[in-house]
Design brief:
The complex is a heterotrimer of chains A (297), B (320) and C (264).
Chain A: H1 2-32, H2 39-55, H3 61-84, H4 92-114, E1 130-135, E2 138-143, H5 144-166, H6 168-178, H7 180-185, H8 190-216, H9 225-238, H10 243-263, H11 269-283
Antiparallel strand pairs in A: 1-2
Helix pairs in contact in A: 1-5, 1-8, 1-9, 1-10, 2-3, 2-4, 2-8, 2-9, 3-8, 5-6, 5-8, 6-8, 9-10, 9-11, 10-11
Chain B: H1 8-29, H2 35-60, H3 68-85, H4 90-112, H5 117-137, E1 147-148, H6 156-174, H7 177-187, H8 189-194, H9 199-225, E2 227-228, H10 235-248, H11 253-269, H12 275-291
Antiparallel strand pairs in B: 1-2
Helix pairs in contact in B: 1-6, 2-6, 2-9, 2-10, 2-11, 3-4, 3-5, 3-9, 4-9, 6-9, 7-9, 10-11
Chain C: E1 4-13, E2 16-22, E3 25-26, E4 31-35, H1 42-49, E5 57-62, E6 65-66, H2 72-78, E7 80-82, H3 95-102, H4 111-115, H5 119-138, H6 154-167, E8 172-176, H7 184-200, E9 204-208, H8 212-218, E10 221-226, E11 229-234, H9 236-240, H10 243-249, H11 253-263
Parallel strand pairs in C: 4-9, 4-10, 7-8, 8-9
Antiparallel strand pairs in C: 1-2, 1-3, 1-5, 5-6, 10-11
The chains are: A mainly alpha (297), B mainly alpha (320), C alpha/beta (264).
């Protein structure tokens, strides 16, 4: 039992990182129906910005978060403007290919500029201690890093919920994702709203990137590929385009993955995740929280 | 009654195909083609098989699939097991690899084809990852280390023959009532269904056929490069093939052929640039998509008809 | 024996009864209209008849056999073809291919025949081609043969959709607002065409239409639908003077029709 609960704790901290990435995926998908394959690589850029802020600018981790968020937001907006905006009315496949092309560009550009070296955040970037926890009399441990990840994620999610539901920008985002043309007619600046969505999603990715770098204690130019893919799976599992779906999917996937590694084999982790994805798509094609809508004839 | 016509067009096509084969075969035998060029020549043929077969699924039937490398992997592994471990002849290995890939196509096709668009894309991507992950976990086929020492049985004759077979079968299929059924599904699935087309059947058929030829490509690949590993067949491999199809034009066989050749040759030419090559590739990808999203050929074909005086009307090759 | 009969046909979407207890009855060779205000459930009935939706309750008997639970393509193969309110042509394909596709399920040759180009392929293709050309001739679409369907003028697109439906060689043809968007002259020609194909192809036709002059002009019998229920049924004369119908349409199209009714 203690072992199981320990896995849940580990899974939740990994899952919160997935959830942060999945939020960006799902927001972008919700607003322009594009699988932004470059999202995982924006995460990588965010992780590097944070790294350089800590190592060269000698800033603390909180400033690193803020600078990385700003940098990633800018990158996200530029990518959208340069590569995706011209294709908004082109065939979906063209936009998808462009997104994958952008992903390849960031990865290989990263390899070219940063090299294949694996870097890690300097020791002491955060104080990482084992904390004893007691749950219903069962002794467990959590690290301060795990708690930090969880706390940061929860705070980010609250901020996002606030933005989406209680600000004018959030209202505009929801309107554009519901019906772009109608939103335009209502006087909403659609381009700007899409840019804001990219900026927000990318900022979330940057946070996830730094957390991921701390969690695995490594950063490298290809670090975003697998977490990006997994987070997209999480978004689909929860119901793509739905913010609560991305959160639920992220946490669920993190816990599930940790369980598979812990109780079966870490080599089976990735295939099982994708089998889970396909099963969920078959049983509930619109995801756990999604509603199936049929095409109107 | 009509009889099988061996028209002037068919004759020129056959003559042209034979001519290309013999020219390259003689260049190879006289050593005019370097080792490096030979590798790329084989890749060119294999890529054409992959692109044409994926075009059947994505371009003609309109089903966005991102797992073609998975089918290729099935063909490669099954064929390699047959030759390396069971000492069977190459032809049998190719056929077994292709059939196994087609069965994989059926397995993935039957349940997932209820999904549409992006959902299908992500399911097929997941399928490709599952195949890769399973290969990683099966020790009999080498696990993560892969299979080493596969006999080099693939040569120019095999590659060319399989390429021509793939193209002919696909073209003949597309230009039939069955191929038109697939195209109808791409154009408007609901209308296709109300025209009496069993859409599920044709989607699965397209998947199985596409997977079959991807399996052939995998078998050829495995028996040329001596080594296959799970990482040979990543998502990026699938994506590369998709890029060829989209560049060439969805639903254009000649487009796929030209794009597959173009991309393979460009890749070879930029070989020395290492990682810069991938940056250039990515940039080109974005630029081409932004400026020509419909691909090189659109849905059009580059045909001999353009260069020959027309006899009869379009679609009237059967005479009437 | 009736060609088509529905008994208690009902479908509800999340509690809303879009079609409620509808009993239709079509004899072979009849030309029947289905009218009603917007949202009355007319197209939903077509979707039920063609298997796009499955009924919550009720029976659909076509040619003595139940259609409930069949897929759209199976229903087409039993002999029902349709057109769509919002035209659903294969827009990127040539007119000829639009029609050839509809012949699909009548073609006898197999995939292997096509791949190997066996004689049965050539025979089958020649037959499809000649039948398609015949249909294009009948519908005066020959000049558009190699034109993309989406580039056709609107009226021609409607005609092509009917031609395509006929290529499936149905016994029952369902036309969903065939005259929508047509001018009076085109509508008149369409009426003549519908009448003519009914004779020529030995068809039974059920049509949804808002253009009352068309419905009253060619239908032998009319069902009036309101809120998913049949509120009246009978020959055009009776429908025109039916109080419930006038009530249902009050403030709507009948205002435009009533004076015509007075004239006739």
């Amino acid at each position: 039992m203690a072992g199981f609960l320990q896995q849940v704790i580990n899974g939740l901290s990994l899952g919160s990182i997935y959830a942060l990435i999945a939020l960006g995926y799902t927001m972008v998908y919700g607003i322009i129906q594009l699988i932004n394959f470059a999202h995982g690589d924006i995460l990588m850029v965010g992780a590097y910005i944070g790294f350089f802020a800590v190592v060269y600018l000698k800033l603390n981790i909180w400033w690193a978060f803020i600078i990385a968020m700003a940098g990633a937001s800018l990158l996200g907006v530029i990518i959208e403007r340069v590569a995706y905006k011209p294709l908004r009315n082109a065939p979906r496949l063209a936009a998808l290919i462009t997104a994958i092309g952008m992903s390849l560009l960031l990865e290989n550009g990263g390899l070219m500029i940063l090299g294949t070296d694996i870097r890690s955040y300097p020791v002491g970037t955060i104080t990482n201690k084992q904390l004893p926890l007691s749950f219903l009399g069962i002794q467990l441990t959590a690290t301060t890093l795990q708690l930090l990840i969880l706390a940061v994620t929860v705070v980010m999610m609250i901020i996002l919920q606030y933005i989406v539901h209680y600000t004018w920008t959030g209202k505009a985002m929801r309107a554009v994702s519901y019906d772009r043309d109608a939103a335009r007619l209502m006087g909403i600046n659609v381009d700007e709203t899409i840019s804001v969505t990219f900026a927000l999603g990318s900022a979330f990715a940057a946070v996830a990137g730094i957390l991921l770098g701390l969690y695995y204690n490594t950063i490298q130019p290809l670090m975003g590929i697998m977490p990006g893919l997994k987070a997209f799976v999480a978004a689909v599992i929860g119901g793509i385009g739905l913010i609560p779906g991305a959160m639920l999917g992220g946490f669920a996937l993190g816990v599930f993955e940790t369980m598979v590694s812990g109780y079966w084999s870490s080599k089976m982790r990735d295939p099982i995740v994708f089998i889970l994805l396909i099963l969920i798509l078959l049983l509930k094609p619109a995801g756990l929280l999604g509603r199936n809508n049929t095409e109107k004839v | 009654m009509t009889k099988v016509q061996f028209s002037r067009k068919n004759f020129f096509a056959l003559a042209g195909a034979l001519l290309v084969y013999f020219i390259i075969a003689s260049l190879l035998s006289t050593g005019m083609i370097s080792k490096f060029q030979e590798i790329n020549l084989m890749m060119l043929g294999i890529n054409i098989i992959l692109a044409v077969s994926l075009n059947l699924i994505v371009g003609f039937t309109g089903q966005l699939a991102l797992g073609h490398a998975g089918f290729m992997a099935v063909g490669a592994y099954v064929a390699a097991v047959l030759t390396l471990k069971l000492h069977q002849p190459f032809l049998l290995a190719i056929i077994a690899g292709a059939v196994a890939a087609a069965i994989a196509g059926l397995i993935i096709g039957l349940p997932t084809l209820r999904l549409k668009g992006d959902y299908l894309a992500i399911a097929t991507l997941g399928f490709g990852e599952i195949i890769k992950g399973l290969a990683n976990n099966i020790n009999y086929i080498g696990g993560a280390a892969g299979m080493i020492g596969i006999p080099r049985l693939t040569n120019w004759t095999w590659v060319y023959l399989m390429m021509v077979v793939t193209i002919i079968v696909t073209v003949n299929f597309i230009n039939s009532t069955h191929g038109r059924a697939c195209i109808a599904i791409r154009e408007n699935e609901i209308a296709a269904e109300t025209m009496g087309i069993n859409t599920t059947y044709y989607k699965v058929l397209a998947f199985a056929m596409g997977a079959f030829f991807a399996g052939i490509a995998g078998a050829l690949y495995a028996h040329y490069f001596y080594l296959i590993q799970p990482t040979t067949f990543t998502f990026f491999r699938s994506f590369d093939i998709l890029v060829m199809v989209v560049f060439g034009g969805l639903g254009s066989i000649t487009g796929s052929i030209i794009a597959a050749a173009g991309i393979t040759i460009t890749n070879a030419a930029l070989q020395d640039l290492a990682v810069l090559r991938m940056v250039i590739y990515a940039l080109l990808l974005i630029v081409i998509m932004v400026f020509r999203p419909q691909g090189l050929m659109g849905t059009g074909e580059f045909t001999l008809d353009r260069w020959m005086p027309k006899r009869g009307e379009a679609g009237g090759s059967a005479g009437n | 024996m009736a060609l088509l009969e529905t008994r208690g046909l009902t479908i509800s979407f999340g509690g809303l009864m879009a079609v409620a207890n509808v009993d239709l009855h079509l004899e072979p060779g009849e030309l029947v209209g289905l009218i009603g205000p917007n949202g009355a459930g007319k197209t939903t009935i077509f979707n039920l008849l063609t298997g796009v939706y499955h009924p919550t309750r009720g029976e659909i008997i076509f040619n003595g056999r139940s259609l409930v639970g069949l897929k759209p393509y199976q229903i087409t193969q039993r002999g029902i073809a349709r057109t769509f309110q919002n035209i659903r042509l294969f827009g990127e394909l040539h007119v000829l291919d639009n029609i050839r596709i509809a012949y699909h399920w009548h073609s006898r040759y197999r995939v292997i025949d096509a791949v190997l180009r066996l004689p049965s392929y050539h025979r089958g293709e020649a037959e499809i081609l000649s039948r398609s050309k015949e249909l294009m001739r009948i519908f005066k679409l020959e000049s558009y043969q190699n034109e993309k369907a989406k580039n056709l003028p609107y009226g021609e697109q409607r005609r092509l959709e009917i031609a395509r439906a006929l290529a499936a060689r149905p016994r029952l043809l369902l036309l969903d607002e065939p005259a929508a968007g047509m001018n009076p002259q085109e509508t008149k020609e369409l009426m003549a065409l519908i009448n003519w194909v009914r004779q020529e192809f030995d068809l039974t036709i059920l049509l949804i239409e808002h253009d009352m002059s068309l419905v009253m002009g060619i239908c032998e019998r009319i069902y009036v639908l309101d809120y998913g229920q049949v509120i009246a049924e009978g020959p055009p004369e009776a429908i025109r003077n039916n109080e419930r119908v006038i009530e249902a349409y009050l403030g709507q199209e009948v205002n435009g029709v009533a004076p015509q009714g007075g004239k006739s």
